[in-house]
Amino acid sequence: MDKILENDFEDDLTNVVESIMFALGREISAKEIASTLHVEQNQIENSLDVLMEKYNITSGVVLIKVKDSYQLVTNNKNYKYVAKFVENTKKQSLSTAALETLSIIAYNPKITKSEIETIRGVNSDFAVNRLLECGLVEEVARLNLPGRPAAYSVTNEFLKSCNIEDVSCLPKFDEIRIKDEQMLISDFEKDDQTKA
């Protein structure tokens, strides 16, 4: 398998590294890329040097290096324009399905999409993707199961928006659950008021 991989990108390593940087969306070291692709670290560093020249100060996207890691980021000179779009996205309210999915992930860290769908009883692709877009949840692991499903947890952005330090600070489920008797009493009270 490794040999096949090597042959696939042997002549096009820089493009492979570029695709990885773009898809990953986070910082990554040359060592981590080299280890995953089973190539020499200096080959990855050479590719990253080429990309550093490609994504320079005149580009809308730049490749930056922080300590031993690299990341594709928006050029600072375009920050004010990008910020407008980000702000507009954040202002868009989440659907009921997205909020329901968010609460499931918050109370069940490292949960997979299939587990979310088991709880909700419906497909949750759109809801999970929307939460990822908003930066409220993130992929935290790949499980050692068929298909290597992603596991999701809430982000620091979610914690900040809730003004809590950790998910353990969320209200306990038993404390916020409405008991069946309370529902019935409420329903009867409404009926009484209607009749009156």
Description:
By secondary structure, the protein is an alpha+beta fold. It has eleven helices and six strands. The protein has helices spanning 2-9, 13-24, 30-37, 41-54, 79-91, 96-107, 113-120, 125-133, 156-162, 173-176, 180-195; strands at residues 28-29, 61-66, 69-74, 111-112, 137-142, 150-154. The strands form two sheets. Strands 1-3-2 form a three-stranded antiparallel beta sheet. Strands 4-6-5 form a three-stranded antiparallel beta sheet. β5 (137-142) and β6 form a beta hairpin. It is globular. The chain starts with a helix and ends with a helix.
Q: Quick summary of this structure?
A:
This protein has 196 residues and is α+β, with helices and mostly antiparallel strands.
Descriptive labels:
three-stranded antiparallel beta sheet; 196 residues
Which structural class should the secondary elements be placed in?
A: alpha+beta
Q: β content, as a range?
A: 5-15%
Helix amount, in percent?
55-70%
> What is the number of helical segments per DSSP (H or I, 4+ residues)?
11
Number of strands: 6
Judging from the principal axes of the Cα atoms, what is the shape? globular
What's the alpha carbon Rg, rounded to whole Å?
Answer: 23 Å
- SSE run: HHEHHEEHHEHHEEHHH
Neighbour order of strands in the largest sheet:
1-3-2
First and last CA, distance = 76 Å
Would you tell me the overall average pLDDT?
Answer: 82
Helices and strands, with pairings:
Layout: H1 2-9, H2 13-24, E1 28-29, H3 30-37, H4 41-54, E2 61-66, E3 69-74, H5 79-91, H6 96-107, E4 111-112, H7 113-120, H8 125-133, E5 137-142, E6 150-154, H9 156-162, H10 173-176, H11 180-195
